[in-house]
Every structure is written in structure tokens, then in C-alpha cells.
Amino acid sequence: MVSIEFLLTSLVVVLIPGTGVIYTVSTGLVQGRRASFFASLGCTAGIVPHLAATVLGLAAVMHTSALAFRALKLAGVLYLFYVAYATWRDTSAFAVDGGAPARSAGSIVLKGVLLNTLNPKLTIFFLAFLPQFIAPQAARPLLQLLLLSGVFMAMTLAVFVLYGLVAHAFRHQVVESARVQRWLRCSFSAAFAGLGARLAVSDR
Hints:
By secondary structure, the protein is mostly helical.
């Protein structure tokens, strides 16, 4: 039921840096390995609403209704710009010397969930991507859809955790250089703003 083509395609999709990857990497650099895991968990959980929308048929509404798509897109754009501004302004967040207050696991997970939930492209992605790998003759297509979605989410979590571990490995280099901290803060802020701008100008 799970083909090699599906696994390879999913891996490519998950590996492409996006909002979730940037958030996980920045969290791993700032707060370490444990925090990056919670960021990965939150970003993976943020896939669930899009999966539910696909299963319940809401994705079809999103695909055909320009108003519904634009409403969710606007919310996503505004949140990404907010995250970009907050990252740029919060210099203490990148003072990874142990003196900065650590965010709770719940707040890290919640932010990851919001980042992915407010991305309407994921709903359209699930609508266009998953059906290609469901066998037309499948006796229980819904079960196959859930299985493929579960595999995709597991792969997302594994890859994001790996991204977080790599970021954590370079954490000491960040600690030792104020210049690197400033560069990372500006880079992550620009990345979030860029993703928001790209989402704003996209049609679908």
C-alpha cells in the first residue's frame, strides 16, 4: 500500500526547507535539542487539520472557493509577518548563553502547530498529492489515505528532528559569536518574512 515512489516523493517534499524547517532549526540553535524536538512535534501536529480537511472534503471547498482560500491565506501571511517581526525584535531569544529564559514545551509546540495550520498550501497539497498514490481499485480508500498520511507525518517528524539535531550541533558556535547571533536573527526574520510574502502573492 505504501510504494517506493510515495516514500521518495514524500522525502523530497519534507526535505525542502520551509516554515517548519526554519522554525525547528532556529529553535534548535536557540534552546537546544529538547526544544527542537517539541518544535518538530508541533509542526507535525500542524499537518493534522489539513489532513482532516482533506478527509472531510473541506479541501475541495478550499480549492474552489477563492474567499475561503484567501481568508486562511491572509491569516497565515499575517502570522508569518508577526513571527518575522518578533524574531527581529527579540534579541534575548538569540542570546543562547543560558541566561535567556527558556520557553515552555507547550508554547513551542503551539507555535509550530499555528505555523503549519495557517498555511493553506498544505491543504491544497494534500488534496493534490495524496490521491495520486491511492490505488483506484482499493477496497477501503479512506484507510489507505490515513495510512499514507500517517507515513508522511512520521517522515516529517523524523526529518525535522534531524534538522533540529544538526542545528543543536552548531549551537556552541552560535554561543561564542555575537555577530553570528545577530546574523541568524536577521536571517530567520527575513526568511519568515519572505515566506509570508511568497504566500501573499501566490494564487494557489
